[in-house]
Amino acid sequence: LLQTYKKELAGGNMGGGGLQFPQNLRGLPVLFLGLMKNLGLRKSAQIPSDLRSAALCLLSTLPLPLMMQYIYPRLYSLHDMPDNAGIPDANTGDIALPPPCNLSSERLVPYGLYLIDDGQTQFLWVGRDAVPALIQDVFGVADKTMLKQGKAMLPVIENEFNERVGAVVEKSRDHRAKGVGSIVVPPLYIIREDGEPSLRLWALTLLVEDRADQGVSLGQWMGVLREKVSG
């Protein structure tokens, strides 16, 4: 598999009328990395057995679109999302989502607001330098120190940006839009970058391209694969 992957990346082909690997196979290494860092398979003595068992159950039972998101979650930047994001399309009524970002802490700016969603849990990440105007528009409080951290519901405030953020959160958790049904509504957790450490670390474990908890970064993982296919 690695030899074929290397061949495809190098621009070769199988020739002789053989099967051609699809373009999206190039994302296979990061999916492997996400799978190894998933709660069910992660090498860590700190994961309780019941949580690990629940994660393994999800990996074996989730429909494919939800399993892919569970392995490689979605990260959306909300503070600078495009003008059409969070607004219904004039023709279809569908809500447009912001473009997803790579799952790396390098993408998180200290003044930003982000949504991290693995299909089972959602996190609203509030940067440590988020301006008061952003906090007021989204959460209806004057300062981020007044934010209630943990499991919560996004407040409904009569301003356009709050409505757009709420629409993105709801669209991201809409499993029917992914072509599958689910009786689970992902809970939403509000997390401050400079707030509760346990909540912050929980959210950061979803950034699978980072090096954390004895796991390698995406760059290191790609280096390992290159060594294996060239060895």
Topology of helices and strands:
Layout: H1 2-9, H2 28-37, H3 49-61, H4 64-71, E1 74-77, E2 113-117, E3 122-126, H5 132-139, E4 150-152, H6 160-172, E5 188-192, H7 197-204, H8 218-230
Parallel strand pairs: 3-5
Antiparallel strand pairs: 1-2, 2-3, 4-5
Organism: Cryomyces minteri
Pfam family, one: Gelsolin
Membrane topology: Peripheral membrane protein
Structure characterization notes:
The protein is α+β, with helices and mostly antiparallel strands. Helices cover 35% and strands 10% of the residues. It has helices at residues 2-9, 28-37, 49-61, 64-71, 132-139, 160-172, 197-204, 218-230, and strands at 74-77, 113-117, 122-126, 150-152, 188-192. A five-stranded mixed beta sheet has the order 1-2-3-5-4, covered by helices on one side. Strand 2 (113-117) and strand 3 form a beta hairpin. The protein is globular, with a radius of gyration of 20 Å. Mean pLDDT is 87; it is low at 12-20.
Give keywords:
231 residues, alpha+beta, Four Helix Bundle (Hemerythrin (Met), subunit A), Severin, five-stranded mixed sheet, 8 helices, 5 strands, 35% helix, SNARE binding, Gelsolin-like_dom
Task: Give a concise summary.
The protein has eight helices and five strands; from the N terminus they run H-H-H-H-E-E-E-H-E-H-E-H-H. The chain is α+β, with helices and mostly antiparallel strands. It is globular and about 60 Å long.
Beta fraction: 5-15%
Structural class: alpha+beta
CATH architecture annotation of the largest domain: 3-Layer(aba) Sandwich
CATH class of the largest domain: Alpha Beta
> Which term fits the overall shape?
globular
Report the C-alpha radius of gyration, rounded. 20 Å
Q: Termini separation (Å)?
A: 14 Å
Unreliable stretches: 12-20
CATH superfamily of the largest domain, by name, is Severin
Number of beta strands = 5
Number of helices: 8
Strand order, main sheet: write it out.
1-2-3-5-4
Helix content: 25-40%
Order of helices and strands: HHHHEEEHEHEHH
**Total of domains:** 2
User: What is the residue-mean pLDDT, rounded to a whole number?
Assistant: 87
The CATH topology annotation of the largest domain reads as Severin
Largest sheet: 5 strands, mixed
Domain Gelsolin-like: 97-160
Organism: Cryomyces minteri
GO molecular function: SNARE binding; zinc ion binding
Membrane topology: Peripheral membrane protein
